[in-house]
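Researcher: Please predict.
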Amino acid sequence: MVSDPAATNLQPEGFPYASRRMPILASRGVVATSEPLAAQAGLEMLRRGGNAVDAAVATAIALTVVEPTSNGIGSDAFALVWDGDRLHGLNGSGRAPASHTPRLFEERGLTAVPTHGWLPVTVPGAPGAWRDLHRRFGKLPFAALFEPAIAYAEGGYPVAPVTAGAWSAAARAYRERHTTAEFQPWFATFAPGGDAPRPGEVWSSPDHARTLRLIAESDAEAFYRGELAGEIADFAAATGGTLTREDLAAHSGDWVEPIGTGYHGYEVWEIPPNGQGIAALAALNVLEGFDLAALPRESAASYHLQIEAMKLGFADALRYVADPALADVPTRGLLDKEYAAERRRLIGERARLPEAGAPPRGGTVYLCAADGDGLMISMIQSNYMGFGSGIVVPGTGIALQNRGAGFVLDPEHPNRVAPGKRPYHTIIPAFLTREGAALGPFGVMGGFMQPQGHLQVVVNEVDYGLNPQAALDAPRWQWLRGNEVAMEQAVPAPVLAGLAARGHQLELRHAGGSFGKGQIIRRLPNGVYVAGSEPRADGCAVGF
């Protein structure tokens, strides 16, 4: 393998952040995600002789039970898989129902797609993604990957603290806002006594276990063409929904070519649109023209350049990203190095309001796993905005995502809602290589924070030589809109003062807020894995 200076800074001396947590080291296999019980589910598959994809799929399935505040059986999913020689991409996102014409929304007097209820529900892609990944790369029987999740759902598990906090917040909001019939099964499933479970309280869901068994036994056919599809469609029809059996049966995931860009001697890879990973790549292209390593990591000058580059990348992504099957998305142009140089010239000493350019034309869980043979996977799965649409199909435990909220209703925008169309998608797995050799998967979940988190951890590792855990522990920023930027409380006061002097409008937030939750796995030249997991979540990295 090629040398990787950014992964080898493993000495505790001079560790730059207060936690002084070190990454884990393992040679036979490793799993990292936002919930410890789910990580253990993946590790169990590795110990049984499964590979990294088996581990990742088992982890993803377990997360639908042990972290329902961020994902569920009704989620979408994406993945990047390194097979030992090359990288493969899976777009497992679902499409809008056949009834979702622009006129449907116009007739209801809407100027934006709602965030809750049936209208933002698109076909869930996660069960199909589990099947597609297993069919192509899996080693263990498909049904075996469901066993830990089913055991948690039937026997119960103690709810972790961060998950419990998000669950409680959702329950309070739902009691105030969601009182009509389509939302009542959510309360029956996730707050049967009227309240969300507290930290350490044991929660179980027999309905969830039944559904997972049906998916396991049918190779996901029950979800798209069988018993579960009927239950989903019948509940939609009974409560004003538009999702039909035909919509579910028409679903398919797509194997896609990953997109990437070079950055200071490394290659960063993302899933192509309809995902927003291109925003991170475009921002890194802009940032590549600056020598960040010559600036202290904790300096206003470094933060300023990163924020301004990210604003430019986001402006273009929000203007152009859509479903490439039904819209003209200038992917090559957005990644063009000469175009990045043009955009770079817009960055000055002061904060600037972002505007899209004219490129040349041509609530989420993240997990990653790697095994002793060098198979590695970067995977992300999400409902959106916590529990998604707020709709749970009675008797199934299926919480439906609200990814349709990513559409716009502007008739001139390429991301305008349309039947069978995939929306702008926030969830994005990522992967790092060097000179064409795999270094490992990484990701940072959290809506529009995700490409911003990707940029920041890449900068931390590549420009500042931080190991995976230190790269995740470092203070973060989040561009919000205009010149408004949220900053973690751990950002040093001189940095805040310097950014304010440059015209950035700062909002100080605590670390448990909206700054994302990530994991990183890196492979050393000797084949040993170095893995870190987000301090802002309940999760961990585990290995053997």
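Model: The chain has one domain: 1-544.
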